[in-house]
Amino acid sequence: MTKTVEITNLNWRYLHADDNALEDITLEVGEGEVLGIVGANENGKTTLLKSISGMIPKSTDGIKEGEVRLYGTLVEEMNERELAATVGFVFSDPELQFTMMNVLDEIVFGLENLRLDLDEIDRRLFAAAEKSASRTCSINPRWSSREDKNNGSLLRRSSP
Ligand SMILES: Nc1ncnc2c1ncn2[C@@H]1O[C@H](COP(=O)(O)OP(=O)(O)OP(=O)(O)O)[C@@H](O)[C@H]1O
Ligand SMILES: [Mg+2]
């Protein structure tokens, strides 16, 4: 099975912190596998996800030891464009990161930012809409531009 995420002996200490937020984490995630990470507050769940998304260490100061690989490549060796095409990150309050007012525009915005051509955007748009609970609304421009507006619950269910 293809390994999507491979973490080996990962330690992370935020700048000025006395202790490591992550201590000797080793795990693998296979393609199609769904992994739940549970733990008490401040145990490092968000820190682990930021390490997988590349936000750590790219835009966070601290000390990292060990490796995080996405599809075999070290996150440090992936540029922003490669990371954006490989990994998505939904914050605790997903509504804070929506930029558009309807599902269709929200999905297309991400795909346009990857500078995909229109045929590929269409293909991915329909594939995403197929999987989401908002299938009818998402793929029908009439619905998405009118009935779908301001529908936070639909946007939430359609977030990556
Ligand atoms: N930007 C930061 N700078 C310094 N320390 C941080 C930073 N972000 C988190 N921490 C510390 O790292 C540790 C892990 O925090 P993290 O936010 O990853 O935990 P969490 O499991 O996601 O918590 P929660 O359940 O509250 O969301 C905590 O001790 C926290 O105070
Ligand atoms: Mg958290």
UniProtKB/TrEMBL annotation:
It comes from Halocatena marina. It holds the Pfam family ABC_tran. This is ATP-binding cassette domain-containing protein. PANTHER family: HEAVY METAL TRANSPORTER. The lineage of its organism: Archaea, Methanobacteriati, Methanobacteriota, Stenosarchaea group, Halobacteria. Residues 151-160 have a biased composition (Polar residues). The keyword Transport applies. Transmembrane segments: none annotated. Signal peptide: none annotated. GO terms for molecular function: ATP binding.
